[in-house]
Amino acid sequence: MSKTLADHLIALKADRLRPGMFVAALDRLWLHTPFPPDGFYIRDKQQIARIGRFCTYVYIDPLKSEEPRNVVPFEHIPATALAPHATTHSVGEEIPWARLALDGLNAVVRRMIRETRSSHAPDLAALTTGLMPMVDSIQRCPDALLWLIRTEKSAGYIYRRSIGTAITAVAFGHRLGYDRDSLLELALGGILLDIGKIDVPVTILAKSATLSTIEYGLVQKHVCHALEMVRAIDNVPERVVDMVSSHHERFDGSGYPEQQRGTEIPLFARIAGIVDTYDALTQERRYAPAISGHTALRYLSGQRQCKFDDALLQEFIHAMGTYPTGTWVELLDGSVGVVCAQHAQWPLTPRVAVTIDRNGDPLIPYTVIANRLNPIVNTRHAGQPGLDAPDLEAIA
Asked: What domains can be seen in the chain, in order of their start residue?
């Protein structure tokens, strides 16, 4: 929420709320509550009691409130204390909010997997609520979450794949101009794509050697398993079901399970297929090492019209950037860094956080450059051993 929009809001203790007031913001992230993040009207005392269980105070918008309009604030709390909503941020400004969103998303995926392993259908409302801060963060600055998933460690492969696919799908949807509801559907489909792998034997998923025909058939069954799980959840949007059921279909009919071709594959499933493949290629797998985002995009580009929708794939490459955020790169002068933000007008010259100087020595503090005068000449699949990606919160 921008300071201009928040200046007129009034902070009230939860026990001073009255029916008719419009709650515009909370004293914590919406993620940690069951309340709608776009705000809501207070209708009765039961709702007030529920707010009190989650919040010490909330922010009332007197311009939207039905009544009472004249209230005395609990205390003056600056607008900067609120989680931002529609404003545009630099990657440095967004990183703290992105990290909170990512923490919440990790908790959502852990709960989803725990419920599924216990033969319980995941709670759709809890999933959607947990995804909202991630969607909001990407709408403000896609680079922040894309940076975090490429530079911070994850709890496990299935967790990371669910989260990475969801984030990348939303970043792609944002590039395509989808509204918030559609982005939430892309996020939901992303975290559910591989949920069916829970029913695939671990010995097969962990196998580093080539799978036998029978073993590969069991892996393919994860789509059917996931579809059964998703259909057990009430009111799942049809486009989410499409993503789960058809993300392994391919444009030339070589995919599975139904060998759909071309535009027989639903649009959201075509998006999911691109995103899922990209995220898989950039992760360490038992049977293949991770490759850089740049190399993954080159691989996908070679599959245009054969495996993937050409027009969508071109948009995906524009969304990620020629050198995607989080990619380790070598520059013309011999220095090494990691891409930390894209440049809309100059896709070949993203911003790079340089961490190793031209002599091969660690650069402390790191330097952020727009590299038109010192262009990227090569990419690396990982950084220098023992050298972590820099903390970007100081970037303006």
From this structure: 3-81 (no CATH), 91-320 (1.10.3210.10), 328-380 (no CATH)
